[in-house]
Amino acid sequence: MYTSRISGLGSYVPENVVTNDDLAKLMDTNDEWIQERTGIKERRHIKKGDGNTTSTMGVKAATIAIERAGLQTSDIEMIIFATLSPDMYFPGGGVQIQDLMGMDTVPALDVRNQCSGFVYALSVADQFVRTGMYKHVLVIGSENHSGGLDFTTRGRNVSVIFGDGAGAAVVSRNETGKGGILSTHLHSEGKHKDELALQGPSTGYWVPEILEKNPQEDIPYYPYMNGQFVFKHAVVRFAEVIMEGLNANGLSPSDIGMLIPHQANLRISQFIQKKLRLSDDQVYNNIQRYGNTTAASIPIALTEAWEKGKIKEGDLVVLAAFGSGFTWGSAMIRW
C-alpha cells in the first residue's frame, strides 16, 4: 500500500463581485441582515459573456494546480469532479474537463455530494493512489450557483448565501516519505434529504410539469433550505467528524495546525472553533468574500490559506464539510 499527498493546489473565481447592497436592489434585504445571519459581505457571480461555466472554471483551477505540482496535463491519470451544478444534466462535467484540457482517454468520475463533494472526491482519489492504481489524480470542485437562484424576495434566504467559483488539487503518490493524507471519514443521513434540496427539474418533476406550474406557486426548481434545521445538525456533525478523524490518528484539537471548514455559514465555523477551543490562527474562513461555493469552498479556502503561508510543512490540516443529503466528512492531512 502507498500513501498519498496533495502535490498541487489551484483556485479560480469570476471577476464579477456582487455585494450585499447589489442584492438589496433585487430583493427585500440589506447588508446588515445578511452579515448578521451568514457573515457574508460579497460573493462572485458568473457574468453573461465572461466565458465562465462550471467546467471552464474547473479547468482554470486545475491548470494552476497541475503546474504547481510540477506536472504536465499528460501526467494526470484520473479526474474526479465534484459539483451540483454541471453544465448539462448529462453527461457529467468530468468528461468536459477531460476534453477541455486535451487529456488522453483518462477516466472521469463525477461526485454529487454537494457541500461534502470535495471531501468525498478527495477520499476517492486517496484510495486510488493508495492501492497503486494511479500515481496522479486530479480532484476538482466547481460551482455555478448564480445560474439557478431565485433573485427575488421569495428566494432571499438561499440566494444571498451562494457564490460561484472553483478549486482543484492534485493527489499524488507520496514518495517524499513525509506527511500525506492520514485518513478520511465519510457519513450520510438520507432521511433529512428534503431539508436542503433542489427537487426539479428531475425525473420526479419533469419538464411538462414545470411548464404547467402556476408561476405564483412555490417553484421546486429553485433550491430550498430549512436554515435552522440545517444549522443545528451541521454544528453537531462537524464536531463529530472532526473528532472522529483526530481520534483515529491519536490526535487532539490542540494538534490542529489549520482547520479548513466548508464555507457554509460563518456562524457555523465560529461555533465549531469555539467548541474545539481553536484560535483564530487555527481556522481559515473566506466566506465573507466568496459566499458558499459548495463543492468549491474547501479547495478555494485551502488554496488561499496555503498561498498566504498559513499552512506549513508538518502542519496538521483538517478539512471538514457538511451539507445536503445530509452528507458530511473530514480529511486529516499532514502537510
- CATH level-3 fold name of the largest domain: Peroxisomal Thiolase, Chain A, domain 1
Calculate Rg over CA atoms.
19 Å
The largest sheet, given as strand count, sense and whether it forms a barrel, is: 5 strands, mixed
End-to-end C-alpha gap: 20 Å
Shape: globular
Total count of helical runs of at least 4 residues? 11
Indicate the CATH class of the largest domain: Alpha Beta
**What is the spatial order of strands in the main beta sheet?**
1-7-6-4-5
Low-confidence stretches: none
CATH superfamily grouping of the largest domain: Thiolase/Chalcone synthase
Strand fraction equals 15-25%
Structural category is alpha/beta
Question: Could you give the count of β-strands?
Answer: 13
* Helix and strand sequence: EEHHEHEHEHEHEEEHEHEHHHEE
Please name the CATH architecture of the largest domain: 3-Layer(aba) Sandwich
Percent helix, as a range, is 25-40%
User: What's the average pLDDT?
Assistant: 94
Tally of discrete structural domains: 2
Overview of this protein structure:
The protein is an alpha/beta fold. It is built from 11 helices and 13 strands. α8 (227-248) packs across α9 (266-275). It is globular, with a radius of gyration of 19 Å. The model has no long low-confidence stretch (mean pLDDT 94).
